[in-house]
Amino acid sequence: NNLSGLVPGSGQFSYFNYTSFLGNPELCGPYLGPCKDGVAKGTHETHVKGGLSASMKLLLVIGLLVFSILFAVAAIIKARSLKKASDARAWKLTAFQRLDFTCDDVLDCLKEDNIIGKGGAGIVYKGSMPSGDHVAVKRLPAMSRGSSHDHGFNAEIQTLGRIRHRHIVRLLGFCSNHETNLLVYEYMPNGSLGEVLHGKKGGHLHWDTRYKIAVEAAKGLCYLHHDCSPLIVHRDVKSNNILLNSDFEAHVADFGLAKFLQDSGTSECMSAIAGSYGYIAPEYAYTLKVDEKSDVYSFGVVLLELVCGRKPVGEFGDGVDIVQWVRKMTDSNKEGVLKVLDPRLPSVPLHEVMHVFYVAMLCVEEQAVERPTMREVVQILTELPKPPNSESPTSPAPCTTLDPPPTTITRDQQQPPAPKSTPPDLLSI
C-alpha cells in the first residue's frame, strides 16, 4: 500500500506483528524499523497543528461575538445621545421675563405624580425649579403639525405673556416643539376657587374672603376687557379658572386659551367652543359668537356660586342650571335670597350679600345688551351700601386699581338702596 509514518504501539495496533505491515516500507514503529527523525517529528507537529487549529476557531468565534455585542451597545448609546441632542434642539423656550430655568427643567416636571389638574384644556403639572421656586406647567392638547406653530399662535401667546396685572396669573414663558406646547405659569398654592368652594374646605371660605375674591376677579377681567392692548375676551370664565395664591388673592387664569383650542379642533369639552357647561351665555345658542358680554354672564354665574355655594349644574335636576334655579327660588323677594344662601356661612352681613347677589343678577340678564360692562361691575361691587349713621362710601376703584377692597364684616341687616336700573326680578328687594 506504500503507507508511511509512525505506527502506534498501543491500542489495537498492539495485536499486530510486523507481517501485518508488509508491503509498506515507509512505516516505522515498535514492530517495524526505527523511524527517521523527520518522520516522527513531522507526525507530532501535524497532531499539534490540528489541535491548535480547533482552538483558534473557538477563540475566533468568541472574539467575533464579543465584538458584535460591544458594537451593538455602542450603537445604541450613540443613537440615544443623538436623539437626546435632537430633542434638545427641537424644544425651544420663549421667556416673557428673566428666568432661571431651562426647557429641560420644565420637561422634568411632566411626571404622573406631579399632575394637579386635568381637563379638555390640557394637563397641569406642578414643577419645582432648581432655584426652589414652584411653577405650574400646562400641557396643551396635541395639535396637528404646523397648526400650533404658525406665526399667529406665537404672536398671540407672546401677547398674553406681556400682560402684567396683580389679579391675572402671569405667563412666565412657554416651551414648544413641532407637536406640543407647554405653558409655564406662576404657581398658585391654594388652587382654584372651584376646588376650594365646592371641595371639603368650602365651609372655611368665609364671606369676607368670598367678597374679596369677587372684587379681585372682576378687576382682572376688567383689565382684559378695557385696559389691555389688544383687548382680550377670556371665553372661559369659571370658578376653576380663578386661582388663589397663599393669601387667597384671586388671579384670573387661562384667558385666551379657548380660542387656541377651538382653532386646533379640540372638542373634548365646551372650553373648545365658548366656555364650560353652566357658564355659557344664552345668546351663544343662536349667534355662535363670543364677546365681552359673554364673559360678563359667566362672571355672574361665578358670583352666584360665591353666594349660594353650589356648582353651576348638576344639583338642580336635568336641564336646570344655577341661574334658572336662583330665579325660581328667590321669586323677587329677600326671603328667597336667604333660601339660596350657602348654609355653610355661619353669619354674614346681609347688606353685602344682597349687593353681590344684585350684581350677579345684572350680569346674567338674558339680553346681552342689558348686562353691565366689567368696568361697571367693578364699580358697583366696590360701592358697598353702608349701614345707617355711617360715612358715605368712598368713590369706586377702577379696574386698574390694585388695592384690595374693604373686607370688614358687619352683621347689619339693612338692604342696599335700589340702583336706578334695577332688574325686573329684583324690584321688590
From TrEMBL:
Domain spans labelled Protein kinase: 110-384
Entry's Gene Ontology molecular function annotations: ATP binding; protein serine/threonine kinase activity; receptor serine/threonine kinase binding
Membrane topology: Single-pass type I membrane protein
TM helices/strands, residue ranges: 58-77
Enzyme Commission number(s): 2.7.11.1
Annotated keywords: ATP-binding, Differentiation, Glycoprotein, Kinase, Leucine-rich repeat, Membrane, Nucleotide-binding, Repeat, Serine/threonine-protein kinase, Signal, Transferase, Transmembrane, Transmembrane helix
PANTHER family on file: LRR RECEPTOR-LIKE SERINE/THREONINE-PROTEIN KINASE-RELATED, PROTEIN KINASE DOMAIN-CONTAINING PROTEIN
Listed name of the protein: non-specific serine/threonine protein kinase
Source organism per UniProt: Gossypium schwendimanii (Cotton)
